[in-house]
Amino acid sequence: MSILEILKYPDPFLKIKAKPVSRIDEETRKLISAMIETMYFARGIGLAATQVGADKRIAVLDVPAEQRAGGRGQGENLIVLINPEIIAHEGETKYEEGCLSVPGFTADVKRFATVVVKGLDKNGKGLEINAGGLLAIALQHEMDHLDGILFIDRLSKLKRDIIKRKIKKAIEDEKKQL
Ligand code: GNR
Ligand code: NI
Hints:
The protein is α+β, with helices and mostly antiparallel strands.
């Protein structure tokens, strides 16, 4: 059991392009378990290894299926993705995104509406996911993290500058309170 610290913008580690995983060893398996626990603890629908300071192309996701009474429990939709790649995409969609590394801020981000993602599962077995809706968005958001890209980097320069200024101000205000 271990909850990892989630790095926050503007931590420079969030800008690195993570390295592919070549072998799923004990250390990698431990990292994956800790990422899953951390994602649930932080109530996120996804988490990328770079957000917890690990230079590896690994993402975990649990996007709830259609919200319904007595909806599914934790773990039902858990996805562990190693070395993910988008091999096909269609259309365009906009969604108000948030990020555990940019707490307290959201913005509309343009993404592909559907994606086909291939990668490896936690056992190193090939995996292909056909996704639309929020899962497609979350997959693109997590894969961006593995390339050092945050959702705020996907905004127009004007919107990006405004949100970055707001974030800086929030960080400064927080410091003053200490
Ligand atoms: O928990 C999260 N919610 C979310 C909502 C809309 C679009 C993307 C996300 S991902 C985010 C968790 C996170 O920061 N993963 O990197
Ligand atoms: Ni994020």
